[in-house]
Amino acid sequence: MVDLYIKNGKSVTGKSIEVAIEAGKITAVAEKLSVTAKKVLDLKHQSVVSAGWIDDHVHCYEKMTLYYDSPDAIGIPKGVTTVIDAGTTGAENIGDFYQLAKKSKTNVYALVNISKWGIVEQDELADLKKIKEELIHEALQQYPDFIVGIKARMSKTVVGENDVVPLELAKNIQKKNENLPLMVHIGSAPPTLDETLALMEKGDILTHCFNGKENGILDSEGRIKPFVWDAYRRGILFDIGHGTDSFNFHVAQVAKEAGLTPQTVSTDIYHRNRETGPVYDLATTLEKMRTLGYTLEELMPMVTTNPARAFHLATKGELKPDFDADMTIFNVVAGEKGLTDSNGGTRKTNELIQPIYTIVNGEVYPVGGN
Ligand SMILES: [Zn+2]
């Protein structure tokens, strides 16, 4: 007898799918299973079963005053099983964040900001003395199951006069730790996007990839800058990181039409852009991507397998035996809704993506009034 049997579900392509779960792990996945279970969740062929959604750019250290939220406000109630906090904390306060985060029901991981206190102020990399390399190595050793990468925010408001120097230091730190993911935030120059991308390598994650700023991926004629194509082809991973200021429908549409595809869809959510928009949640960000022409089949890997691979979450992101029993079950329903990007651009959707159950570690949480 298994703990949980999810029956009569469907995949994004409409195929029948059933899943068995025991002790927090997936034990079987097939079109039809024959199992007895302590608990049965019958989806009546109405709902899509996905590997648990991973939002790889969020801010959820509650003790901050700039960008903060509670993991269980942006995770489970939003259909998100796993969040990766993108550098809210640095080596000095990530331990405290860990103590808080482990009480959450939502899975929480973190990228350690290269600045020692993280984003306590907007210009955390304006003073290079705040980059304490030895403290970062210590934190990585102390919290190996919590810290999944490092974060450097490379925009004028953050780095002050330091241009690309913080990124050079981040690359040095990364090289001393095998396979350590590095997420780089982009925004206004300096540093220019050109200089930033020149330092990035295959597997590094570029977040806020479709921002509408002058220092973004489009040139003055609205075409993708050649060095951006070069970076994309070198294997730099493009991450949405929607945020309050960093997602522009027009830029994203140009990229879609040109075939420059992001690897991961994330929100850059924190309490303010969750409560009053334009972000709201990951499902809304996915609805925005749908209006650009991405299919659900194309989008699901961007919130499951791709972020799991980018951040080496070996037992997450797939519906397969021995993987963690994290799942997002959602309905796709007809309904009109206006969607707004970070620059006031709007789109209309006729299709709503509504999570109805979030399953974390085999535990079922009904969401969305279900
Ligand atoms: Zn962010």
From TrEMBL:
The keyword Zinc applies. This is Dihydroorotase. Zn(2+) 1 binds at residues 57, 59, 151, 268. Keywords: Metal-binding, Zinc. InterPro entries: Deacetylase_Atu3266-like (IPR020043), EF_0837-like (IPR047601), Metal-dep_hydrolase_composite (IPR011059), Metal_Hydrolase (IPR032466). The record marks 153 as: Transition state stabilizer. Pfam families: EF_0837-like_N. Zn(2+) 2 binds at residues 151, 185, 208. GO terms for molecular function: deacetylase activity; hydrolase activity, acting on carbon-nitrogen (but not peptide) bonds; metal ion binding. The modification N6-carboxylysine is found at residue 151. The keyword Cell membrane does not apply.
